[in-house]
Write a structure and sequence with these properties.
InterPro entries: AhpC/TSA, Thioredoxin-like_sf, Thioredoxin_domain
Number of helices: 5
Shape: globular
CATH architecture: 3-Layer(aba) Sandwich
Structural class: alpha+beta
Mean pLDDT: 95
Pfam family, one: AhpC-TSA
Oligomer: single chain
CATH class: Alpha Beta
Strand order of the largest sheet: 2-1-5-4-3-8-9
CATH superfamily: Glutaredoxin
Protein name: Thioredoxin peroxidase
Order of helices and strands: EEEHHEHEHEEEEH
Keywords: Oxidoreductase, Peroxidase
GO molecular function, one term: peroxidase activity
Length: about 180
Amino acid sequence: MYTQKLQPDSSFPDVQVTLSTGEAVSLSNKREGCDWKMVVVYRGKHCPICTKYLNALEDYKGRLLALGVDLIAVSADSQSQLKEHLEDLSITFPIASGLSEEDMKGLGLYISVPRSEKETDHNFAEPALFILNQDNTIQISELANAPFVRPDLEQLVSGLEFIRDPENDYPIRGTFSG
């Protein structure tokens, strides 16, 4: 089964998830002082590559905030799985659980079935990243169907520094539909 992919320059849907604190939030809500949002979808606590990526992302949080880019990570894990995962994470940015299969499909994510009960107990999203601008329009998107394909964080944040510089007047790319 294939999913409909969200297109650049389209509105990001309202997706409700639960933070590690238990608070329900919308993925597109931005903290005060931020007008853009980075939404990082990760596979779940079962994925050591995700853990490594999230821990590396912590090093870029300050640069993102300086650009006015808020940050959240989310998976389809349960709240208890997220709490267990926090033991392996060294992050201070918001992280959430409860991404439903319906929401995964609505976001156009690639969805995988666990290989065994040892991996996890639910279908899960493969990695994805969305950058939402001030209008909650998709400025950048990256969808992967395997855990090994993710944007290089230095290149991504450097690119956002370029895009956010008003002198560069950088448009949303990839909108030509032929």
